[in-house]
Amino acid sequence: MSTALILLAAGKGTRMESDLPKVLHRIGQAPMLWHAMRAGAVLAPERMVIVAGHEADQVRAAALEHDPDAQLVLQADQLGTAHAVAQARDALGGFDGDAVVLYGDTPFLSETTLEALQSARASHDVVVLGFEAADPGRYGRLVTQGDTLERIVEYKDATTEERAITLCNSGVVIAAASLLFDLIDAVGNDNASGEYYLTDIVAIARARGLSAGVVRCDEAETLGINSRAELARAEAAFQARARAELVENGVSLLAPDSVHLAWDTTIGRDAEIEPNVVFGPRVTVESGARIRAFSHLEGCHVSRGAVIGPYARLRPGAELAEDVRVGNFVEIKNAALQEGAKVNHLSYVGDAEIGARSNLGAGTITCNYDGVFKHRTVIGRDAFIGSNTMLVAPVSVGDGAMTASGSVVVKDVPAGALAVARGRQENKPGFATRLFDKLKARKKTQQEDA
Ligand code: UD1
Ligand code: MG
User: I need a labelling partner for 192 at 20 to 30 A (CA). Which of 21, 279, 407, 434 fits?
Assistant: First the structure.
């Protein structure tokens, strides 16, 4: 059976107190919408339809950045969850599989839960994901009889007895797409909110003699995000889970709570991460690499046996081969360092290729930007760049070449050559002693005059 996802993301998120649409607020440095899309993707959906409304253009751009095949539909006025789902009807015209409704602000559904939901479709026409709420608050309540779900009652419309039910509606529903749209046609808005409730489809289905069931999941999975405080709690929950997953997979985190991960951080087993390391998006660290304390990494790849930091910064496009060393106060951007290359102290390497085993001395700077264009620096293998060399790009240094410390290299250096590009040193015997004497004498006269 093929599956389509309908992701609801039209709401304003008033309680976020933000100009940014709620689903674009970030968790693990990715919009929560991406988390929801990724969660739904475990069902290998044939179609993904996202219902946008509030700031729809921004939502559309973000959704397409994550999945260019996603279909965006507009819900101009937010008249309720059933009305939101109805907007996906044309986009799913002719689709004859199951449709799963998810919320863009419910980012943590697990693979097991969604698979259980899909399996339950074998026994029911409509399946709703429910959870036992510690504090049922204003959630919709699931009214069941044995294994059958009879109806869902929204908090605002519930009686005192119904409000005592602790089995709550997560909002996630699965049904055949054609049936779903059929049932929605029968939903009205005669209720406490004057909204078209998606939840009404259960009672409508039951009245037609169709069956409805519940799959239960842990409350933590259906955690919705409505305020900054809930966003902060969701971030903490995400970090805790992501760290635990790494540790289970054989990564050493010396001080787990101090390591900040992104939604897509990938780290191989036996890698070691020291305290206070921040991972931005798109980082891959291979097995056995070591990331030392206070380093900041984003958009980069670190190979086996490499050692980074302490206090290193790897920016997007940093591609580090095996056994590379990047030491303290070194910034690498859009640069490939081949096997065993070393940049150990106080350097900037941007828009560059560094050959195998080459050593860049302390204070090496690639001057890659002329104020308008960026230029490349290419260094061969086994080269030695003297401390405080300025490599004014575009420039190349050949295999096995050297640059003298303090050089400003503006011309290509051939393989095996030594480039010296600095003033020649001249020693003037006794000059310093005479100068000191003169200066001290002047100071003494000034003090006597004062
Ligand atoms: C909904 C459910 C409730 C459930 C709760 C779980 C209904 C009627 N109620 O209530 O049973 O316990 O979620 O969190 O379905 N949305 C749109 N367009 C709209 C309305 C909503 O896209 O016109 C989106 C929102 O952006 C949000 C989701 O649908 O992602 C849920 O809407 P929300 O207003 O939060 O519903 P609740 O009142 O919380
Ligand atoms: Mg809600």
Answer: 21
For tokens 């449709």, the residue is: 99
Instruction: Give φ, ψ of 182 to 5 degrees.
Output: -60, -50
| Nearest CA owner, ligand 1 atom 17 | 10
Residues with CB under 6 A from ligand 1: 8-11, 51, 53, 75, 78-81, 83-84, 103-105, 139-140, 152, 154, 168-171, 197-199, 224
Rounded CA-CA distance 432/309 in Å is 41
Instruction: Let me know if 345 is a catalytic residue.
Output: yes
Encode 151-186: b = buried (16+ Cβ within 10 Å), e = exposed: bbbbbebbeeebeebebbbbbbbbbbbbbbbebbee
d(CA 158, CA 152): 9
Can you give the pTM of this predicted structure? 0.91
- To test the pocket of ligand 1, the residue of 103, 141, 201 to mutate (highest count of ligand atoms within 8 Å of its CB) is 103
Around Cβ 423, how many Cβ atoms within 10 Å?
7
Task: For residue 450, name the pLDDT band (cuts at 50, 70, 90).
Answer: confident
Contact criterion met (CB below 8 Å) for 121 and 127: yes
105 C-alpha vs ligand 2 centroid, how far in Å? Answer: 8
The answer to whether 211 and 148 are in contact (CB under 8 A) is yes
Q: Catalytic pick from 54, 66, 296, 345?
A: 345
The single residue listed with the structure tokens 């070194």 is: 330
Q: Could you give the maximum distance between any two Cα atoms of the chain, in Å?
A: 110
Which of 329, 391, 406 has its CA nearest to residue 358? 391
**Cα–Cα distance, 303 to 354 (Å, whole number):** 15
Express each pLDDT in 174-199 by its tens digit. Answer: 999 999 999 999 999 999 999 999 99
Q: How far is the CA of 81 from the centre of ligand 1 (A)?
A: 6
Q: What is the pLDDT of residues 289-302, one digit of tens each?
A: 999 999 999 999 99
